[in-house]
Amino acid sequence: MRESWYLSGMARLDLNLLATLDVLLAEGSVAGAARRLQLSASAMSRALARLRKATGDPLLVRAGRGLVPTPRAAQLRDRVRRVVDDAEAVLRPAMRLDLGSLSRIFTLRCSEGFVESFGPRLIARVGADAPRVRLSFLAKPDKDSTPLRDGTVDLETGVIGLPMGPEIIAVGLFRDSFVGVVRKGHPLLSRRMTARAYAAGEHVLITRPGLQMGSIDAALERLGLARNVAATVGGFSPAIALARASDMIATVPGKHAASLCLGMHCFALPMPLPGFTVSLFWHPRLDADPAHRWMRSLVRSVCGSQS
């Protein structure tokens, strides 16, 4: 009896409406959605009326000459997109990945230092395996995961933080820790490195949203010390450049920024400090994609070889 009720309920539910709703929310226009789905404007209007009845919400309301989504429609947009993507993946034939003929651009969003440290080997591996594949690296100014959700970014690297959405998939790439960086011949190197000597030196401080460097100052504070900050910059590259040309000390992630520190002296920080994991992030809609899976394994292999 319960099964027959369930089946009759499914029969009354037209799942095609989900695909229609997805296009309507993407286009924000009945006429635009009709053109995309190759339907008449009247047929699309009837579909919108059915959607309004099914959801109990207007979904799209007029504002001037256009339509804007209601709060309920805005809330549904990402969920509907995921459901439609999953349905298409279920019905799409499984295809064997041919790397030799794969033609695709993968966009990776990462913090400065990653491309310099890992990019050359990653590009070489891609070129050897799939010569028609290209990589596009984007700067990562924050931890906002919107680019992963809207599909403008295929993969992202970084340390897991609160702004990351709960649906984003993450896997560890390598463990890292902060190190001090100074020019060769720096006066600090002529004596034993202590927390007091480190704190008393002139520091270039890196301030960037999401960068977890507060643990350094917290560790010094527990010892009754504080860094002597001479300059503040917004990234690893300018911090290391200043340290290279002066007696200032830069503190950066050792493995992540290794290539930026070539020709300089790196030293372990002289106080207890926990390490952290640099991870790889992607959106679930790409999880089963064979080409994306190959690219993920390549990034993990290249980064893991430096762990």
How would you describe the overall organization of this protein?
The protein is α/β, with parallel strands linked by helices and 307 residues long. The protein folds into three domains: 2-91, Arc Repressor Mutant, subunit A (Orthogonal Bundle), CATH 1.10.10.10; 104-176 and 277-304, 3-Layer(aba) Sandwich (D-Maltodextrin-Binding Protein, domain 2); 178-274, D-Maltodextrin-Binding Protein, domain 2 (3-Layer(aba) Sandwich). The protein is 41% helix and 21% strand. It has eleven helices and twelve strands. It has helices spanning 2-12, 16-27, 30-37, 41-55, 71-91, 114-129, 146-150, 195-200, 214-222, 236-244, 290-304, and strands at residues 60-63, 66-69, 104-110, 133-139, 155-158, 169-176, 178-182, 202-206, 228-233, 249-253, 265-268, 276-282. A five-stranded mixed sheet has the order 4-3-5-12-6, with helices on one face. Helix 9 (214-222) links the parallel strand 8 (202-206) and strand 9 (228-233). Helix 2 crosses helix 5 (71-91) and helix 3 (30-37) crosses helix 4 (41-55). The longest helix has 21 residues, at 71-91. The radius of gyration is 26 Å and the shape is elongated. The model is unreliable at 1-11 (pLDDT under 50).
